[in-house]
């Protein structure tokens, strides 16, 4: 038996700079965006900009990995958390869906998911849980600049304004 050749190498190729990678990254960006957009819009429909569950939940987080920080936030920053959670989830999701300001939105998603992961602290199955998976999705979108793949960032980066201000590319992509 010859181990030097594999039967599919002549018919199937998957290169990281090929079209399947672009399709996958666009799909991953869209699904991650839909996940957050749906979470935010649902909160907006049910509670408007008064998501009182957020601060209430944070006040009860006394035994989590974040210690007294979320309790303090729930008691003192409710004015920001109540409108902020649904609004930012919606905006982060929408930005990822259309692929505009993708890296900036992904940073917001990373912050949210880090707080959710550490704050929920339900590590019954170890450190790997759904919150960590969400964090990894946002980090992947951030690192690869997934907005360039079938998103508005790919178009915006070609404009004269962005070319004149190349540092803007750091929040796009």
UniProtKB/TrEMBL annotation:
<keyword id="KW-1003">Cell membrane</keyword>
<protein>
    <submittedName>
        <fullName>DoxX family protein</fullName>
    </submittedName>
</protein>
<feature type="transmembrane region" description="Helical">
    <location>
        <begin position="49"/>
        <end position="71"/>
    </location>
</feature>
<keyword id="KW-0812">Transmembrane</keyword>
<keyword id="KW-1133">Transmembrane helix</keyword>
<dbReference type="Pfam" id="PF07681">
    <property type="entry name" value="DoxX"/>
</dbReference>
<feature type="transmembrane region" description="Helical">
    <location>
        <begin position="130"/>
        <end position="150"/>
    </location>
</feature>
<dbReference type="InterPro" id="IPR051907">
    <property type="entry name" value="DoxX-like_oxidoreductase"/>
</dbReference>
<feature type="transmembrane region" description="Helical">
    <location>
        <begin position="20"/>
        <end position="37"/>
    </location>
</feature>
<dbReference type="InterPro" id="IPR032808">
    <property type="entry name" value="DoxX"/>
</dbReference>
<keyword id="KW-0472">Membrane</keyword>
<feature type="transmembrane region" description="Helical">
    <location>
        <begin position="91"/>
        <end position="118"/>
    </location>
</feature>
<dbReference type="GO" id="GO:0005886">
    <property type="term" value="C:plasma membrane"/>
</dbReference>
């Amino acid at each position: 038996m010859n181990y030097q050749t594999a039967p599919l190498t002549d018919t199937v190729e998957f290169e990281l700079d090929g079209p399947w990678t672009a399709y996958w990254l666009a799909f991953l960006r869209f699904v991650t965006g839909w996940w957050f957009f749906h979470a935010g819009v649902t909160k907006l429909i049910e509670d408007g900009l008064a998501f009182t569950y957020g601060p209430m939940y944070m006040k009860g987080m006394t035994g989590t990995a974040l210690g007294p920080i979320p309790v303090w936030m729930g008691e003192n920053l409710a004015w920001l958390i109540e409108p902020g959670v649904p609004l930012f989830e919606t905006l982060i999701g929408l930005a990822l869906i259309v692929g505009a300001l993708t890296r900036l939105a992904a940073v917001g998603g990373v912050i949210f998911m880090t707080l959710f992961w550490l704050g929920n602290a339900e590590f019954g199955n170890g450190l790997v849980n759904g919150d960590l998976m969400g964090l990894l999705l946002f980090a992947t979108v951030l690192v690869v600049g997934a907005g360039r793949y079938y998103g508005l960032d790919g178009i915006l980066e070609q404009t004269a304004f962005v070319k004149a201000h190349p540092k803007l590319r750091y929040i796009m992509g």
